[in-house]
User: What shape does this take?
Amino acid sequence: MNNIFELIKKEEVRQKDTLMMIPSENYASKAVREAVGSVLMNKYSEGYSGRRYYQGNKIIDEIETLAIERAKKLFGVPYVNVQPYSGSPANSEVLFALCEPGDTITGLGLTSGGHLTHGHPKVTFSGKYFNSVQFGVDEKGLLNYPRIERLVKKEKPKLMLVGTTAYPLALNWKKFAEIADSVGAWLVADISHVIGLIVAGAYPSPFTYAHIVTSTTHKTLRGPRGAMILVTVRGVKKDPEIFSKIDKAIIPGMQGGPHNNTTAGIAIALEEATKPAFKTYGKQIVKNARVLASVLQAGGLEIVAGGTECHLLVVDLRPIKLSGNVAAEALEVAGIVLNRNSVPNDTQPPFYPSGLRLGTPALTTRGMKEKEMKQIAEWILKVIEHVKPFKLPQKQETRSNFLKAFRGKIEKDKFLLQIAIEVKTLCQKFPVP
Assistant: This one.
């Protein structure tokens, strides 16, 4: 039987020999990984710097303070909390701090490229305990700001939680601020996916317009799997007590002791993000994504919103009558790892969506550029063409068996396995950091 370290080694090989194209994944630096695997995980540190419930936290206080000061300087904000365990708790903690159960909130719907924590109805904390009124994209897959404004003025939400996980175009933060201000709502910007691009100046920044900004630290920031809550100058003006409210929402509201090893990893990632090379990196991510989208589009695939202005793109497979499950499974066998994803106005359930979501952060970390994107796009087109005859059954009760049989077939598919060999050869030219 495999032991854990053998399995870790296998995962390391998988990450080296395949193309990591899930937009929310990246390669953390060796320094970040060493911090996360350090003795800091042994310490309990409930509370905040200088205000702990346990003894022995003087060094932990210094680490957390350093992480906070680096974030405040990098983003030009008066307050940062680095204790949220991940992005979902961070968003929930903001809601806990600013809203009462039953208050109206609004955010971008999941199938339009939003996130579960932005008010997805009934099955999530944000959708179950608040009156969530969500907005979506229009028929062209674009945000329609006049339509959003009409919805907000009608529903008068207390808080707007705005961010994306699968919307490829840049958000107009100024317009969102105007809409929020028109009804006196809090504007919370979730920049989890694009934080590194914002640092690089490759994506619009919300810090002038939003009251609060939330973000994970492991995507385009290339840090550990943690999160931050940042309050802007506008946020303090709206509520001078906001710092205290968020602190209390995190502990004792929703969390216990912070993950000190993660805090140290965040501090290191923030320092790495100040380097000139990081700005070059962030800009290259967007260049790569645009080339990828362009070649796929030229090859006959439909790209949601017509292209991309960030690190990701979404392929709509409905015109070629192919399931996202079929395409994603086949691409993984070929060494290209991305994820199936819902598309705007998708009539299929989230587990069997009609699209693919793919991105360039991890590929760019490895040093790949436009030339490699063209090659990767050609591989994707070949794989999709190869599996076009495989149609997901209409009856949901037969889909599981169909996919099981499909996986068994493609695992031995010589065409796909040959592409996997070519992918591995490319990967060897661009070592994982």
Q: What stands out?
A: The mean pLDDT is 96. The CA atoms of residues 207 and 232 lie 6 Å apart.
